[in-house]
Amino acid sequence: MSNTTYSTTSYEKLLSACGGALVTSLMVTPMDVIKMRLQTQHVYTPHAKTTCCLTFDRCTLTQAIKTTKRNFSHLGKVQVANLHECALHSPKNPELFKGTFDGIYKIIKYEGVAALWKGLSPALLMSVPANVIYFVGYDYLRDIIQPYSQLNHADYSPLAAGAIARTIAVTMISPIELFRTRLQATTTTDVNDFKHVLDGVKNMVLKDGSQALWRGLPPTLWRDVPFSAIYWMGYEQCKNAIELQNKQYVALTDLQVTFAAGALSGMFAAAITTPFDVAKTRRQVDVGRDTPSLKTTSVPGILKQIYQQDGFRGLFRGLTPRVAKIGPSCAIMISSYEMGKVFFSKQREQNL
Questions:
Q1: What does residue 163 show for φ and ψ, rounded to 5 degrees?
Q2: C-beta contacts of 342-350 below 8 A and 24+ residues apart
Q3: What is the distance between the alpha carbons of residues 161 and 143, in angstroms, rounded to a whole number?
Q4: 337: buried, middle or exposed (CB in 10 Å: 19+, 13-18, 0-12)?
Q5: Residue 6: CB partners within 8 Å, gap ≥ 6?
Q6: Helices (H), the chain
């Protein structure tokens, strides 16, 4: 945040955060879908061939769905899912994503453009309250912590305030995050995907209790708390450095400075915390499955298993779409929030 004090009320800050959250969710959801698929596509495939796999050995996704619709429509959605998994099971399957742009191309080709925004509804439902709590809470906490966080002429209040604000926000929206993750991880194009995922979550709660909705919380905290601490500290440092250079060499507007600082800090923090994001995704998608792929539920244990199975590369699977999502989203969100505060401040001054 800028050191400039804006005469804005909590309500005006709330509106600024809501506007930023809406714009951000609409623009970065496709990258979130790609990241989720890349992190889970090599894990959740059947280990034993089903009847349909024996019938359509090494079938492609498109062939499987077309054949099922023509010959096996009386068997319903379960058969389509099995055929789809059969296609993914083939080592020569062309529908496995090779990278970010390959994923975008194949989702558009096989599932349609709308599939890139799968999970948008829960994303909006989650991002608006989460960002309101997060950004307004950060402002409030930073002002409280700042007098006590000076060390060697450096201000560490952004680090502490960012971590605390994110902990509160993540804890409150964890059940919605669980639902969104499971919805985006689905690879079918059925119009009832939302209902099927919702039913799966309901069955999980009936089986394991309401605490199951927070099973993804520990790995999410492992990811988001360090990310927020790094991001806010980096944002303040980047912004101060850019403003210093701005005075000497270039002439950037306040919006451009804020956007650049948010993007740079966001991309760096996203890259550093990617292994925790992979662990979080694997944990949340694994919850409620009949045959879990994870041997443990602890984050260090999940990271160890991923490393043993896929090596160092597995820990950073989905890095490109994650950075491509986080960089712009941080830039858009912080710019919208700051500009919203400036707008309301100027409106108040004009009305005086």
A1: -65, -45
A2: 342/6, 342/254, 343/16, 344/6, 344/8, 344/9, 344/12, 344/15, 344/16, 345/6, 345/7, 345/8, 348/7, 348/8, 349/7
A3: 9
A4: buried
A5: 341, 342, 344, 345
A6: 10-40, 51-55, 61-71, 77-89, 100-110, 120-131, 137-145, 157-185, 193-208, 217-248, 254-272, 274-286, 299-315, 319-351
In the structure encoding, which two tokens stand for residue 112, read together?
A: 């349609």
Cβ 280 vs Cβ 216: under 8 Å: yes
Give pLDDT tens digits along the chain (352 positions). Answer: 444 455 677 777 778 888 888 888 888 888 888 887 887 776 654 443 443 333 333 344 444 444 444 444 444 443 333 333 333 343 445 567 877 888 888 888 888 888 888 777 777 777 778 888 888 889 889 989 988 877 777 788 999 999 999 999 989 888 887 777 777 667 665 556 777 888 888 888 888 888 888 877 887 898 899 999 999 999 999 998 888 887 777 778 888 899 999 999 999 999 999 999 888 888 877 766 667 778 887 888 889 998 998 898 889 988 988 998 899 889 988 998 888 888 888 887 777 6
Secondary structure (3-state) at 150: strand
pTM for the predicted model, two decimal places: 0.68
Of 143, 185, 149, the residue nearest 33 (C-alpha): 185
DSSP letter string over 1-43?
Answer: --SSPP---HHHHHHHHHHHHHHHHHHHHHHHHHHHHHHHTTT
What is the three-class DSSP state of 252? coil
Whether 285 contacts 181, CB under 8 Å: yes
Q: Specify the amino acid at residue 224.
A: D
What sign does the CA torsion over 110, 106, 322, 260 have? negative
Amino acid at position 114, single letter: A
Rounded Cα distance between 87 and 55, Å, is 12
Pairwise CA distance, residues 212 & 229, whole Å: 27
